[in-house]
Amino acid sequence: MSHPQDIEITDLFIIGGGINGCGIARDAAGRGLSVALAEMNDLASATSSASTKLFHGGLRYLEYFEFRLVREALIEREVLLQAMPHISWPMRFVLPYHKDMRFESDTPTSKLLGLFMPWMKGRRPAWLIRLGLFLYDHLGGRKILPGTSTLELPGTAEGAPLQGRFAKAYEYSDCWVEDSRLVVLNARDAAARGARIMTRTKVLSAQFEDGLWRIETRNSENGEQATHHARMLVNAGGPWVGDIIHSTVHSTSREGIRLVRGSHIVTRRLYDHDKCYFFQGTDGRIIFAIPYEGDFTLIGTTDADHPDAAQKPECTPQEQDYLLTFANQYFKRQLTREDIVWTYSGVRPLYNDGASSATAATRDYTLKVDTSSGGPLLNIFGGKITTYRRLAESALDKIGAQIPVAKGPWTAGVPLPGGDFPVDGVAALTSELRARYPFLTDFWARRLVRAYGTEAAVMLGDAQSAADLGRDFGATLTEKEIAWLMAREFARTAEDVVWRRNKLGLRLGEEQIAALDGWMAQCRYSASSAAE
């Protein structure tokens, strides 16, 4: 079919700038496909910046017999650690044991135990937890992460913050990840490989005509509308995946999603070591208490159905109280709402498998190609941060069945920007940075390495003093860094910077954030004036 010569045709048009959309964009661009991605807000502005920040196999999912998902996630932890040692690192998790721990009543494991061991009345026996941890250690073939050990808590740093009734704990390995930075680095790498990344760009409609998708977009900053043409469409809209299917593409697909809200609270630092706690409740649910940003502790998450994607998820007073009460069953120090310094909440767009509860809904990802609108549309349901790279590879398999893809999988082990150094190399890189830039404090140098890895020195350039980095916005955030974030990392507003590119919003006051926002607005105005 012939098309006018002046039409630019893209192989792949992706709707959604979360981890799934940006992961697919990077993989596809690296295989030689032409790619455009539209995100209606900032990158990672919804679910992908509101996770529990863990690269984990999902110990809890073993109770649902989701062995494929857990095995894939366990293998993937180490693949990802090596590709991004600046924004991801190993952590040890302490699981205190007591005899009153219970299963959630509708897991396959609890039903089996109820059938064969009714006298347990839903309690989790110690042997079963050990069996789960044995599987966790061996399903994924660990090479970097240490295995499970048993801890006697009395007299230890791990036992000190806990109530005296906890005498024993199991300690196992998982990993931390800076979730929103992961998204931005995938987008940057996709752009470096030729993808066009458009933020603040809403897809108004998509229709298949004359053998191509015709996609209409509008930029929310300047109101500009544009038309794009693509051979295939990818719907990675996260919580809005259903809206895109029905309202944007007008597909007749019957696939459904279940929106499940996960909320978190952040307090001042509650204990003096760098390990996480895995707490099990009497209701069968679990929460984590995790060292966060040096001076804080992150506690989460909840699982609640969230009926409407248009409603901004917020950590409700009831969810705050639930998390506080849960943590107070373990910690000596009893927490109140006065201890909360920040909350955040995200919506997981899970594939609707008919599960009876939000907790039980599958965390596995589901990819469906739909051609009911005439052209190939790939809808992405579910997914976890840990398995985003494997999801992208699976998506490229589906895409390759619809349009030609010349190259095979390539992303395993290929570092993200700034990640080209050894897994255990953060301390050495931080020392090098401080030696080269003596004006950096230890906190500042460590923060830059954790954010930018080997690119921290590229960003600082030939600066001889802090004054060479321009205006100081507080908490080690300088004009030089903001310029980098605007030029290279798609940041447009202060919120993009202090809550997604970093978490300095925890350390900056409202006036400081407002001053930063005004400065960035002036930069955007100057740039748009110069372009005219």
Automatic annotation (TrEMBL):
Q: Organism's domain of life?
A: Bacteria
Q: Ranges for the FAD dependent oxidoreductase domain?
A: 11-388
Q: Does the keyword Nucleotidyltransferase apply?
A: no
Q: Which Pfam families match?
A: DAO, DAO_C
Q: What Gene3D superfamilies has UniProt attached to this entry?
A: 6.10.250.1890, Alpha-glycerophosphate oxidase, cap domain, D-Amino Acid Oxidase, subunit A, domain 2, FAD/NAD(P)-binding domain
Ranges for domain Alpha-glycerophosphate oxidase C-terminal come to 411-517
Q: Which PROSITE patterns match?
A: FAD_G3PDH_1, FAD_G3PDH_2
The record's section on NCBIfam families has:
PRK12266.1, PRK13369.1
Q: What is this protein called?
A: Glycerol-3-phosphate dehydrogenase
Per the UniProt record, the source organism is: Rhodobacter flavimaris
